[in-house]
Amino acid sequence: MKSSFWNAGHKPTLFSAFLYFDLSFMVWVLLGPLAVQISADLHLTPAQKGLMVATPVLSGALLRIVMGVLVDHLKPKKAGIIGQVVVLAALLFAWINGIHTYQQTLLLGIALGVAGAAFAVALPLASRWYPPEHQGTALGIAGAGNSGTALAALFAPGLAAAYGWNNVFGLALIPLAFAFVVYLLLAKDSPETPPSKSLHQYLNVLKDKDAWWFMFFYSVTFGGFVGMASSLTIYFHDQYGLTPIVAGYFTAACVFAGSLVRPLGGNVADRVGGIRTLLLMYALAATFLFILSFGISQPFLGLAVVVAAMLSLGMGNGAVFQLVPQRFRKEIGVMTGLVGMAGGVGGFYLASSLGYSKQVTGSYETGLMIFSALAVLAMIGLSSVKTRWRTTWGSVTATTAKV
Questions:
Q1: The pTM is what?
Q2: Which domain holds residue 319?
Q3: For position 91, which CATH number holds?
């Protein structure tokens, strides 16, 4: 990584944005690693399990719009404080009162969506401190908070076996409180703060076709990542008969892989261009998801294929957000919310469709094949706009970054 990157920006804010993002994502997908134990106690069908783990993803997607608006009106730090207080209160309530019905799991999932909306705060908080040539790296580091989903998979099933799954909600309050204090002490809003915009101005962004392209591209990369992260514990348990704890370890390996390469994806995009990087990642993701759809019989071979798919999706996430600030730097708050929302919608689709696919057909083949096809469609779409992007806002006369 270039030394000039470390001399730019504000490192304490970058670290606090990462930590806030990381632990927020840990609780955002918490129902996924606990799904095997919860569904056993509440007697849930495969479709209900799929919807349970998908609900926080959809809630987080929609709330990213709200958080994007708050970021532009209240500044990122204050918006992040509000979001963290809501999540802490929701987990405390669930821990003390308990979760006893399927409907209550859905209500908790909606509340946990606020944690998923941290995306719309952490990325602008970090982005506004860095110049265009370092956007991919800065947002890759902040966005590596995706790894929080691996923490949930790594620890939640074991803690649930030892203390009961409802007590996991209380235990999650400990790291969240620590991250909240760090955020209060270290995070700082950049002096480069765009003026607040009216709701009409926000809606105007949606009139730009490039906004819709970015929303679609991220719905495939991040949607695939978070949808898989939410569903893999169930998948490994159903497909290979693994215990919840071992299935959680498998899931953690996959999610760590996809999370840790997000900064690499952003850094590679800074060096060779976001479009070229993203095209390759779509091709790889489509290939591995297609292979996975055939129902690999050996668990460790299946794990290897899922890891490869998650590596591709994780690097793709970094590449998308190398491009977004180049095109929408003045609207980065609302665009982070919109693009993040689309990513969450993609994750909701994947997680819920896998559950329905399992219930209707008895396997995950159909759901995985459809998502593989979406990656191919995204590759075709990106190929169709790359020339226009490189000759307009991505030209050498318009930005110092490689597009």
A1: 0.83
A2: 10-185+207-391
A3: 1.20.1250.20
